[in-house]
Amino acid sequence: MDLAYKASLKRWALDHLSQRIATTTEAMRDAQDAANSEEKSSAGDKYETGRAMGHLQKEMHARQLAELVRELAALHAVNEVVLRTGNLDFFIGIGLGKQTIGDRTVIFLSPHAPLALSLQGKKAGDTIVFQRESLTISEIF
To answer: CA-to-CA distance for 53 and 125, rounded, in angstroms?
Structure first.
């Protein structure tokens, strides 16, 4: 059960990233199309400004896409860990923040995040403090 839950969290993260990649790719394509469709007007500066803005948006989306692809590769490469407490789970593998998955609240953390680093070496039965609340780790898998 625990390994299936861990796998389902990873699958959720992969699906989430894939959706963000698709959305960003579409936004990048739309920005390129907008830049290409700017028509030359009698006000030449307006045309150049519109094309430049389209290219800037495309470049911004391209940077976002590159970051998402890096995150996806990192998620595939890391050996993710799940720490379960009474009412909260921590998935250490990718930083996606607080999410509700089924009936559980899951904090998705990058392995390099300070909180993830502070959880290294913890074991079942250890107590941690998260947002001024003491939590006891019930399982690690």
So the answer is: 55
Helix (H), strand (E) at residue 92: strand 88-92
Tokens 């150049």 belong to residue:
48
Neighbours of 13 (CB within 10 A): 23
22-62 pLDDT tens trace: 999 999 999 888 878 765 544 555 557 777 888 899 999 99
**Which tokens in the block code for residue 124?**
């079942």
Question: Which strand ranges, in their side-by-side order, compose the sheet holding 127-130?
Answer: 97-101, 104-109, 88-92, 81-85, 133-140, 127-130
Q: What are phi and psi of 87, to 5 degrees?
A: -125, 5
3-state secondary structure at position 4: helix
Tokens of 46: 């307006």
Phi-psi region of 108 (alpha: psi -120 to 50; beta: other; left: phi over 0): beta
Amino acid in position 4: A
Tracing tokens 């469709």 back to the chain, one arrives at 37
DSSP result, 97-132: EEEEETTEEEEEE-TTSHHHHHHTT--TT-EEEETT
Residue 138: which H helix or E strand, with range?
Answer: strand 133-140
